């Protein structure tokens, strides 16, 4: 609840334009509802302050009854022409304003919603199943939106104001919030909230959703159990984190896994996980701990495997060094549009990090460290699928050589429905780490595994 309550605005009946909402539009999507909710919220806060009510000490059921009673008193005092159902709608919204997150409350608690994108107080979009669509929820104005944002980030020790117009924070439920406000955002506050499943996808679930087929399932299983070093490459919201979570299921339970991230998003289904998260510095930059520092420190923590949530900076050098010095089985994600782009990006990041050796030595170090690149993408339908599995085989003529083991292809069946298939391109990985699994991989390629 806010520290300061603004005075109750001048009493005003809904305008004719507000009262004559377009037919078929739900009450909670009309301007009348927004005006009434804003005034009722001020009325409620003033009453709480005048009576010195300790809302925080009340049970949710007590708060609900209190809000309903105050809503009825507000409607009676203001003589607002609403029916019982509309008054109940306002009371429910007020309760979310008081102890929840206002218009975002339902969206944050909906398990099917993956992303919430706010482009100003009137424009809210959500992503579900990889498909983006507009949501009916909205805010009364920018002040309303900012009030809810500050309520979300206040327990996290973050600020959002003129001196700090950008914020990136991890939510208590594991999600991630990014917000940017005026003067940097021209058209009002811009907010992106990425939600994560409480129970991450398992490999079997991804297989059932058509993210890959059984031969690729068997290969991914062998790659992880064989302690291959894996990079998961893809674009924004392509499913990199979900796939990385799923692959961790294959890690033997007697191994110690250390995860390193800017904002903790991974939720590995493994009994021995040490989670590390970078830290921003103070106003003068002091106290900052970046990913590179954490990767360097993790080498002293007796890791069996190191998992980097996303490689995007100087930490690439420490990661390559770790993969080349006995920490096999490490994994990471990276933003890239193809396996070849992924290799170019590794070279670029290493150069930015101050790599002192020659171009040839850098490429040999990359080829020695990385065993496989798994490329994942989001299709136009919203589904996430593995586009290719590529093995890094060495350096030839000063170029990192690779071979594509599987390639995704879409096709149209007799019923005009889009189907997926993965073409095996000479299923013979050279990696010696897969020797114990040759028979399993051969059986999977013949369709003998369940």
Automatic annotation (TrEMBL):
Belongs to the GSP E family. Gene3D superfamilies: 3.30.450.380, P-loop containing nucleotide triphosphate hydrolases. Pfam families: T2SSE. Residues 100-378 form the Bacterial type II secretion system protein E domain. It comes from the Bacteria. This is Pilus assembly protein CpaF. It comes from Stenotrophomonas nitritireducens. Residues 1-24 are annotated as: Disordered.
């Amino acid at each position: 609840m806010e520290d300061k309550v603004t005075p109750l605005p001048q009493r005003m009946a809904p305008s004719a334009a507000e009262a004559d909402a377009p037919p078929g539009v739900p009450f909670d999507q009309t301007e009348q509802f927004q005006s009434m909710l804003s005034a009722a919220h001020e009325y409620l806060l003033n009453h709480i302050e005048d009576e010195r009510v300790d809302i925080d000490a009340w049970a949710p059921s007590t708060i609900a009854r209190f809000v309903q009673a105050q809503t009825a008193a507000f409607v009676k005092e203001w003589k607002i022409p609403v029916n019982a159902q509309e008054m109940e709608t306002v009371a429910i919204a007020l309760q979310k304003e008081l102890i929840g997150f206002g218009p975002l409350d339902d969206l944050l608690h909906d398990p099917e919603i993956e992303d919430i994108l706010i482009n100003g107080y009137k424009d809210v979009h959500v992503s579900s199943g990889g498909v983006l669509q507009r949501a009916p929820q909205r805010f009364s104005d920018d002040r309303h939106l900012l009030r809810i944002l500050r309520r979300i980030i206040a327990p996290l020790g973050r600020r959002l104001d003129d001196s700090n117009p950008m914020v990136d924070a991890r939510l208590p439920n594991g999600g991630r919030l990014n917000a940017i406000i005026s003067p940097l955002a021209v058209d009002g506050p811009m907010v992106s909230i990425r939600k994560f499943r409480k129970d991450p996808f398992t490999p079997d679930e991804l297989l059932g959703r058509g993210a890959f087929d059984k031969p690729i399932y068997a290969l991914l299983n062998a790659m992880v159990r064989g302690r291959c070093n894996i990079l998961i490459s893809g674009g924004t919201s392509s499913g990199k984190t979900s796939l990385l979570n799923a692959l961790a299921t294959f890690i033997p339970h007697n191994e110690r896994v250390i995860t390193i991230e800017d904002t903790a998003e991974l939720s590995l289904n493994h009994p021995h996980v040490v989670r590390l998260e970078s830290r921003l510095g103070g106003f003068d930059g002091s106290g900052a701990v970046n990913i590179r520092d954490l990767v360097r420190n993790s080498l002293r923590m007796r890791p069996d495997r190191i998992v980097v949530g996303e490689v995007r900076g100087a930490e690439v050098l420490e990661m390559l060094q770790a993969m080349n010095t006995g920490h096999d089985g490490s994994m990471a994600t990276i933003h890239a549009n193809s396996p070849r782009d992924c290799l170019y990006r590794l070279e670029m990041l290493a150069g930015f990090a101050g790599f002192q050796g020659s171009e040839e030595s850098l490429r040999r170090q990359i080829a020695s460290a990385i065993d496989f690149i798994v490329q994942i993408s989001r299709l136009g339908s919203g589904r996430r699928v593995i586009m290719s599995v590529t093995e890094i085989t060495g350096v030839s003529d000063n170029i990192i050589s690779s071979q594509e083991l599987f390639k995704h292809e879409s096709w149209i069946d007799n019923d005009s429905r889009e189907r997926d298939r993965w073409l095996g391109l000479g299923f013979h990985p050279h990696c010696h780490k897969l020797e114990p699994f040759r028979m399993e991989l051969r059986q999977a390629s013949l369709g003998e595994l369940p």
